[in-house]
Amino acid sequence: MRSVWAIALISLRNAIRSRVVALLLTILVVGIIAIPLTVKSDGTLTGYVQILVRYTLGFSIGILMMATVWAGCAAVSLEIQLKQIHLLVTKPVSAMQLWLGKWLGLVILNSAALLVCAGTTYGLLRWNTRAQHLGAADQQKLASEIMVARVRLAPLPFALEERVRARFAELAAHGEVPTNMPVTAVLAALQESAQMEAHTVAPRGNLTWRFVLPAALTHTAAFQLRYKLASSFLAPLTMQGRWIVGREQGGQPYESTQAHPSNGQHSLTIPGTALRGTGALLVTYSNVNQTPVTLIFGPEKALELLAPVGGWLPNFARALLISACLLALIAALGVTAGSLFSMPVAAFVVFQALVLISTAGMIHSLAAREVNFTSLLPGHLTSAAWLDQTMVWFYRVLEILVMPMRSADPMALVAAGEWVSWPMVAWAFLQQIVLASGVLLLLAVAALRRRELALPAD
Amino acid sequence: MSSDSQAVIEAQAVTKVFRDFWRRPKVRAVDGVSFEVRRGEVFGLLGPNGSGKSTTLKMILGLLHPTHGQLMVLGQSPREVQTKARLGYLPEESYLYPYLTPDETLDFYGRLFGLSAPERKQRTVQLLEMLGLQHARRRTVGEFSKGMARRIGLAQALINDPDLIVLDEPTSGLDPLGCRQVKDLIVALARRGKTILVSSHQLADVEDVCERIAILYNGRIQAMGSIPSLLEDMHQCRVTFPDLPAEKMQRLLAALRGVLGTEPGVEHPRRDLEQFFLDVVEQAQRGGDESSGAAPTQGVADYLKSESAK
């Protein structure tokens, strides 16, 4: 471990003395201060926090990622090129210690740079949202919706299997199951139809959702109910609806009759006292509108609860830890590429890997066979189902490879006042540092043990 | 291992073939080389550029892997980490980190050998004194002249008190004073039981310090043995005596002519230029002239004075 620390510290010292660190920190801090001044927000407090925390800090982390790719690739490949590695590997230093030392140096450097960025961002946020600067309504919004950590809860899905099966049996009994479609496609269509039916509230009807609440939730702070709906009328209407929110057992349910537009996304603030009692939280909507109008919720994200579970600053700190894990993985990618290839090749490989990772969402769709590859080919090849299968497997493997990097943007969550939990941090650590970086370490060690470090071409 | 347990380096039919991108053989840099270096010996590898001596050295250090043959260093494969704990290496160029001071450089390499902090500090002070660099310990290595950087390179090669010291062109870039100091150091270290492998173009330097040499050409050993056995001309003799008056000299030459039947050669012995230069510098130093480069050295570092026990 002493060798690992020695290599890490010497890498840091070299970076600091060569003024690379000073230059990088200057770019980052200037970026954080300058970007919010040049980007126009929507004028709301939420918009400003989004620009500062999500985009500006996100941009700085992006720059840090690029710098990490460069520094990671250079860490070993430049030492090989400059032959400084001759002195290092003729000392009792194993390939693993060499890799770990270089990686640890980058992790320390990134963590320090991330702290500087985070500190600047937090300072700017506090300064620009100071009490004298905001009206009472904005102060209230800042405290209850923005500078908080709220958990986003979805209701339990409706049990529709029985309904779908019964409907399918009915169709089969009447000989109405389409014969030109696979059974799975028929069942999927029936499922979709059942979903729509389950989320529909007829005039004078009502609909109840069940939420399982996490233990961390307290009943002292107010929480928000967000819902998305559409009506059977194309023209916009103002609807009357009654919400009843309360626990299954005990407690005092909260009731409120609301006038709301018949389309779009809306929110309702509910006092924390509604959480008192035990069992699941039941949320009921009654369609009490005078004019008979049918409402359809969602069904995608029809309803969600946003309940405060902690402070903003610890949430921000956890988001930074997740970002640090991602930077550590990029450092691992760079150091490994630098152990395998020369500097330009290594940088090219890592940038290609990052491009691939940025298309992870598309890869996920392709792996799920949402795209029919053969349909893209000339007519005589459209029957090549094997090609479809091969491509799906190819994308499945690719999806596994890019999976460690496919985490939700923690800064987007923090900017929206959403909870970044410790399990998310632990998952990022496990996936990006223990597993992915561990695999990269083993790959680099195997390569360095085999590689001749004094070849004339080096 | 060899039957001779004192062998520190043992090469048997070692061959190194460099290949191109497609793994096709390109150059046979070393071709079936066999030799051994014994404990406490100063062994010289000589040869013109491209003769294979650097490649041989790099295989001994584990930086290159032999294509064929067997190579053992300190009884183990040169690629073993344990082997490297007992090895010191001075490369041909000083591949040091330019932003570090000599103190930091030696501390860093000392850490890699697992030396404790007080030990690193003590050895750093002694090495810098020995190499005349105490006054430059706060400057970064990047600001050093080539000769000063070579001295730091030498210091890092000795920080772990190694049993085997591999020196690639140890006097390259040094002034005659530095050359003399390094050669004296090599001799002193060998006397204390260290094994030293030297690769050099400076034939006079090799002659001064090495007991045995191998001359490589085209990847093969062309000559190998002790310096006297290779250099002594057994067909001629040199007799040295004080200068004589002309009349006595004439009588002596006449007598020799009678015995030899040929004209004997007569010349005054010359001091070599290196010794003359060192005398001049020493006189200047006694006169109090100061230099910003390497200072006069202080012999051998204390921790290197103990006899090598391994």
What this model shows, in words?
The complex is a heterodimer of chains A (about 450) and B (about 300). Chain A has helices at about 1-15, 20-40, 45-80, 85-90, 95-130, 135-145, 160-175, 185-200, 310-340, 345-360, 360-365, 385-400, 410-415, 420-450; strands spanning about 150-155, 200, 205-210, 225-230, 240-250, 255-260, 265-270, 280-285, 295, 305-310. Chain A is an alpha+beta fold. In chain A, the strands form two sheets. In chain A, strands 1, 2, 4, 7, 9 and 10 form a six-stranded antiparallel sheet that branches. A four-stranded antiparallel sheet of chain A has the order 3-8-5-6, with no helix packed on it. The radius of gyration of chain A is 28 Å and the shape is globular. Chain A starts with a helix and ends in an 8-residue tail after the last helix. Chain B is an alpha/beta fold and about 300 residues long. Chain B has one domain: Rossmann fold, CATH 3.40.50. Chain B is built from ten helices and nine strands. Chain B has helices at about 55-60, 80-85, 100-110, 115-130, 145-160, 175-190, 205-210, 225-230, 245-260, 275-285, and strands at about 5-20, 25-40, 40-45, 70-75, 85-90, 165-170, 195-200, 210-215, 220-225. Chain B has a six-stranded mixed sheet, sandwiched between helices. A three-stranded antiparallel sheet of chain B has the order 2-1-4, with helices on one face. The longest helix of chain B is centred in the middle third of the chain and has 16 residues, at about 175-190. At the A-B interface, helix 1 and helix 4 of A face helix 2 and helix 3 of B.
